[in-house]
Structures are given as structure tokens and as C-alpha cells.
Amino acid sequence: MAEKTDTTDLLGRDASHELDDVNEPDDAFLFASEQEQSVQAPRRALVVIVTDHPDDSAQDTSRLAGELLVEAGFTVDGAVIVRSKKSKIRQAIETGVVGGVDLVLTIGGTGVGPRDKTPEATRAVLDQMVPGVAQALRSSGQACGAVDACTSRGISGVSGSTVIVNVASSRAAVRDGMATLTPLVHHLVDQLQKSSV
């Protein structure tokens, strides 16, 4: 004997006629809705190269970082090369923050030399530290053999709605750093955008 389906609503009224009016969701509508949610405005980045020797290698590093950022879904607003002076580094970072970029990526100036001032300049701008990102960069740098990456004093954090990350200056550190950094930065930007809505 077939089991009878109960079609009464919460008040005990017959609701069988309402079941006939329910349409299944349109697959095209659901797909379009998912696509709409996954489409986001391009994320913007600024690259800050910190060096006392603005030569061809600084330009090469800048180009590499720009290419990797584009591959990671960022629009690169620009790349600036600044001297290893705390005030110059800070000014370049603040330009990105005030300009509303999602990421300021500094490259260089993270070692232990007397002119390595990038972490100090960055710390002066940050509202919040996010140490896990810098730690992930050091760990991945060690794994890939980028000595300057694993011994970097680089820091990471947030200023306003901008993520700021220090990366060591070798090509290996930049290449590996971007592979490690990409999902972390996208996650942080997502969080910042949700909190500002």
C-alpha cells in the first residue's frame, strides 16, 4: 500500500494545491547567479622596489613581480623604485594605501644590513599585523632554497583596506613568494571587502 503524503500546512489546512504551483529553479538562472557572485572587480596592486642601486636588475624584478601579479588576477597600478630610506619607503607605501590599492607589495630591504629599513617603514603604516603571511613566505622560501626569503625580516599586515607585504629581493624569493602569497592575499582582500560593506 502506497504511503500517503501529508500536504497540510502548519495550521492544518490542505496545502496540496500549493505544491502544484512550485516550480523547480531554472538551471540557467542558478548558473548566472553563481557567475555573478564569482565575478569581482580586478584587484589593484602597487609594487615598491627598495634598493640603493636602481639598475637593470631592479627593473627586471619589477617586471617579474608585475607579470606574476597579473597572472594572480591583479591589475598593477604601477611599480616604483625607492632608495633604502625609511621615509621614502613609507611614502611609497602610503601612496598605495591612499590610492586605494588592494595590495602593496614591497620587494627588497628586508635583510639585516644597516640600510634594510623596509620592515620598519611598513610597521609605521600598518593598522594591524598579519604575521602568518610573512611566516608563510619564510617557510616557503626555505623549502625552495631562497636563502634571502627564509632569513627575511619582512612583515605583513593591513592599513585601511590595503594589504601590505614585504618580500625579499631575489628572483627566487619573488617567484616563490607570489605563489605562496596569492591565495593568502585574495583571502585577506575578501575579508576586508566584506567588512567594509
TrEMBL record:
Ranges annotated as biased composition (Basic and acidic residues): 1-20
Residues of the signal peptide: none
GO molecular function: 4-alpha-hydroxytetrahydrobiopterin dehydratase activity
Involved pathway(s): Cofactor biosynthesis; molybdopterin biosynthesis
Keyword ATP-binding: no
GO biological process: Mo-molybdopterin cofactor biosynthetic process
SUPFAM superfamilies named among the record's database cross-references: Molybdenum cofactor biosynthesis proteins
One Pfam assignment: MoCF_biosynth
Protein name: Molybdenum cofactor biosynthesis protein
Organism per entry: Corynebacterium minutissimum
Gene expressing this chain: moaB_2
